[in-house]
Design a protein that fits this description.
The protein is of the alpha+beta class and 441 residues long. The chain has 10 helices and 4 strands, in the order H-H-H-E-E-H-H-H-H-E-H-E-H-H.
Length: 441
């Protein structure tokens, strides 16, 4: 699970810049986070393709069980013969028919059939776990995309409020300029900032539309579908929450993450591979049986009599003892042993990666909450400072440079506050995910 990569992607792309439809589920009129996740899990094409791989595994499992049963094959042969008669004077034609049933089954082959059944059953389980892992990845991806939209929506609201304030300042600066209290250059600076704020609102609105489109594409909605996003109110209580114990998070993740369980299954599959390979050293025993009869137009007996007279039965045992197979079995055993060690190393690597991801997510959550608290305080003080300078500017006590400097500081603090807020929310949701809790807002 690449939660760290998702968080980095979210922060770098979501915070610094603001296929055909599948109709397996009723589309909501307004999409909240949970409805987005549920819809994606049910309708995502990649997940459905992986589910089809599981169905193939189930077919292989049933086939391996059927290999223990005897087979049964029937044969019918009809032939026409034209040849010189025994006297040598005339041509002789004949019709012949042959009818048979054959059956065979393996009685013993070093337990290879039973091991193949067990292995295919494990492979089905492995496929199901791979589907679950894909679903987990999709859930994190949808969560990040949804929170990016919430962040962009707040950015639009801030840009709208900033533009309203900027328009008021522009009108006030015009009055001051016309009254001779400020120079034309100062008035031009305010006008320039007003234009910048209008442009910032356009950019923020376009970014919100683009992020909605990206979520729509993740959900694989059709071009005619409208995505109406639900915007929940997320107060500070959603951001500053008591964090769980890190060791408890890791222990839960170790017991619930499908990639960990899948690596255990792969070790079992590798162990059975070794048993199957060793079976090549053992003799195999097979049972076969057949029934057959036939008739010929040259025979003097009638058809029914011929079938009865020519009817025969056969049964036999076949023992196959391997003596020399050009090191094929030995090579298979060596490869299987290497496969076991590889599976063990993979299991250890997955545990290590999971520990790294949990520790990183936990550290990011702690850091994000601290950053949010600092950003909240910074925003509060910059707002006070900006409000005072704006009031003094309206009274002609501050120049435009001082006003615009404070405004820039305030806008920067606003943006940092939003970044910290949604980064903290995302990181907390990542910890929920590793605790096997549903991701909800």
């Amino acid at each position: 699970m690449k939660s760290k990569s998702l968080i980095s992607f979210f922060i770098l792309l979501g915070f610094t810049s603001i296929a055909p439809a599948v109709s397996g589920q009723q589309k909501p009129k307004e999409w909240d986070l949970r409805s987005c996740i549920n819809y994606a899990l049910e309708n995502n094409i990649q997940i459905k393709m992986q589910q089809q791989s599981v169905e193939i595994g189930k077919v292989n499992f049933e086939q391996s069980k059927a290999e223990k049963l005897p087979n049964l094959n029937g044969g019918i042969g009809q032939s026409f013969t034209n040849q010189m008669a025994a006297t040598g004077s005339n041509q002789e034609q004949s019709f012949t028919g042959n009818y048979s049933l054959q059956s065979a089954m393996v009685l013993y082959n070093g337990n290879k059939l039973n091991n193949a059944i067990s292995q295919n059953e494990l492979l089905v389980k492995s496929g199901e776990l791979a589907v679950k892992e894909a679903e987990n990845n999709m859930e994190l991806t949808i969560t990040a995309a949804y929170l990016k939209i919430l962040y962009a929506k707040e950015s639009v609201v801030n840009a709208q409020n900033t533009l309203i304030s900027s328009e008021t300042q522009n009108n006030r600066a015009k009055i001051l300029f016309e009254s001779g209290y400020i120079a034309e250059s100062n008035f031009a600076q305010v006008q320039s900032q007003y234009s910048k704020d209008k442009y910032a609102l356009v950019v923020a609105s376009n970014t919100l539309d683009l992020l909605k489109l990206q979520l729509k594409q993740l959900l694989q909605l059709s071009i005619n579908d409208t995505l109406v996003v639900h915007f929940p109110v997320l107060d500070d209580n959603e951001v500053i929450k008591a964090l769980p114990v890190k060791q408890d998070v890791f222990n839960t993740a170790l017991n619930t993450m499908p990639e960990v369980e899948n690596s255990k299954v792969n070790m079992d599959v590798a162990a059975i591979d070794l048993d199957i390979a060793k079976a090549g050293l053992l003799p195999s025993l097979s049972l076969s049986a057949s029934l057959a009869t036939g008739h010929s137009s040259l025979a003097s007996e009638n058809y029914a009599t011929q079938l009865g007279n020519n009817f025969y039965q056969n049964a036999g045992l076949s023992l196959n003892v391997p003596i020399f197979n050009k090191k094929q079995v030995k090579s298979s055993i060596s490869k299987a042993q290497i496969g076991i060690e590889t599976a063990k190393l993979s299991y250890a690597e997955i545990q290590t990666n999971l520990l790294t991801e949990v520790e990183t997510a936990y550290l990011d959550a702690v850091s994000a909450q601290s950053r949010f608290l600092a950003a909240s305080e910074q925003l509060k003080f910059t707002l006070v400072s900006y409000s005072l300078v704006e009031e003094q500017f309206n009274l002609g006590m501050k120049n435009t440079v001082e006003l615009l400097t404070e405004k820039t500081n305030y806008l920067t603090a606003q943006q940092e506050f939003l970044q910290a807020k949604y980064t903290a929310i995302l990181n907390y949701k990542i910890l929920d995910f590793y605790q096997n809790k549903p991701i909800e807002l």
